[in-house]
Amino acid sequence: MDIIFLSEEEAIQLQTYFYKYGLDEPFAKNKDFFVFSFPEKHCYIDALAHFIIHVKKGEFLHKILSEQFYYENQEERDQIIEIVSEMCNGKREELIALTGKMDELGLVRKAVGSFLDSSTSVRFDSLLTFRLKDYRERLIRFLYVAIDEYKMEQEYQIFIHMLREYLKDRIPRKKMVHLSMDEEVKFYDEDFRVMEKDKVLSMVDRRLLAIHPAYIDSAIIAPLLSMAPEKILLYTPYDEKPLVRTLINIFEERLVILPPIQKTNI
């Protein structure tokens, strides 16, 4: 079984990857191409599949991002590709819901097996171009979603930075605020007296709602920013919810998360 490479760099890439699998088959140079000769092709299906997933996939995505989407900054491309990789690993369920799941290893392994069965001598670029066409199309579908997610994350980070700057320049109107986020939302002052909703809303700086009304929660984020307390004690069972994560990102060391308030303690 021979696999032919037109690029020596690509042949060296594969050989280096094979070493990690304990496979030390050398390649031979034959005029203008390079040949791997395998005694038993089925021993190499998994190694080839993992090589494609962990090496060639990244190269393919970098090329698409650079040439079709004009992302010239490598750090930006890396962040987008990381999102694609997380989707491939099933870690971004909310994004996978938009594209459908993919059995990445199964898809690539099947293509590699079919490729190796097609002839006793095959070209590696043919595998990438033709046999893996479905896989590449699935990756591009993931890439579109990942780009949108990356843009939203960048916008979110700009939003968080803007609110931190606002908070930094704000004179504290409260030394401490207790906030309960459980079945309902309740504010308490530093003496643990309930702050009525009308009073809380009357303290909101209306400029905040004009800055980014789509993102700034008028019931919780806007009042807290307006009061700019030196310390916020947040009592909640929802420490992983997006709103709570946003509060953590905005208020940082000012915010302390505690278990929900027991009704007997109120």
Q: How is this structure best described in words?
A:
With 266 residues, the protein is α/β, with parallel strands linked by helices. The chain folds into two domains: 2-164, no CATH class; 170-265, no CATH class. The chain has eleven helices and nine strands. It has helices at residues 8-20, 45-67, 74-88, 93-99, 104-117, 124-131, 133-169, 197-202, 206-211, 221-227, 242-251, and strands at 2-5, 27-30, 33-37, 121-123, 176-181, 185-188, 194-195, 231-235, 255-258. The strands form two sheets. A five-stranded mixed β-sheet has the order 7-6-5-8-9. Strand 5 and strand 6 form a beta hairpin. Helix 2 crosses helix 7 (133-169) and helix 4 crosses helix 7. The longest helix is centred in the middle third of the chain and has 37 residues, at 133-169. The protein is elongated. The model has no long low-confidence stretch (mean pLDDT 88).
